Structures are given as structure tokens and as C-alpha cells.
Amino acid sequence: xxxxxKVIFISGAGSGIGRATAKVxxxxxxxxxxxxxxxxxxxxxxxxxxxxxxxxVVGSVSDxxxxxxxxxxxxxxxxxxxxLLNNAGLGLPTPDISExxxxxxxxxxxxxxxxxxxxxREALKHMKQQGKGHILTLISMAGQRTNPGAPIYCASxxxxxxxxxxxxxxx
Length: 171
Prior knowledge:
By secondary structure, the protein is of the alpha/beta class. Helices cover 47% and strands 14% of the residues. The protein has a five-stranded parallel sheet with strand order 3-2-1-4-5, sandwiched between helices. Helix 3 packs parallel to helix 4 (102-130) and helix 4 (102-130) packs parallel to helix 5 (151-165).
């Protein structure tokens, strides 16, 4: 599949794997849109790629309204989404559950699972209208095997894996 003029939505393209992927995809001719919490990082990405090939909305993937706005803005700027890459993720150390507060737990679940749900839901709405599309989710090895030093992170990634696996026939 050629990427020329494909519209690809990447959650969390401001840093790490998302940033590197956005650069590669724009070089291949794709139009990339992102939602990320760091305006500075997103501005930097925009400055590193071909003009007109990257745009974004600043916000969290765990914020339902921000995700809706991001997909609407993507369609306005580039057109309907062809591919969603659920990339945004958050890992915080939680080796001792008895010492972990609910806010830390909720923060990881919100980004790693709720973010996948919200972005996938919005992408599916657009993809169903087109009758086509692809949804990919980066999980990490933590979604395949447990790590005693990060049980909540692993649980959130296992959940994201299960959710993503269930999307196969939704388009």
C-alpha cells in the first residue's frame, strides 16, 4: 500500500516512536495528524517535516472532547483518516501496589486504555462512512507478559491489546 496522500492519525506523535513514525510517514508522502499533550514537541515535529504534511491538536487522548476535536480538525485539514496509529502511552513505576495511589493507576489506565478506546471509536466513525481503514495499536511487550515492577502498566497494556484485538471486523 502506497502512503502518498494517505491520512494517518498518530496519537502521541510529539516524542519517541510516534515522532519517529510521523517523520518517516511524512517523508513517504503521507499526511499525518496528531493529538499530544506537548505543544512544544508537536511544534518541533512540524518544523522537522515537509511543510503541509503534519498538523495537530494539543490535548490528551483520555479527554473525550479533545479527541473528537482532533479527528474533526484532521478531516478539515487533510480529509478522512485512512489509518489510525494508537501510539500514545504512559508508564509510571508502581512496583508495590499497596503503596500506589488511585490517581497513578487512573492516569495510566486513562492514557493506555481509554485513549485507545476514544481514538479508535472516533476513527471507526469516519472509517465506516468510507467503508475502509486500518487501526493499529502499539502495545509494548508489557501487553504480552507481566513485569513485577510495573503491574498497572502491564494491566493497562493487556487491556489495550484486548480492545484492539476486538476491533478486527468493525469497519
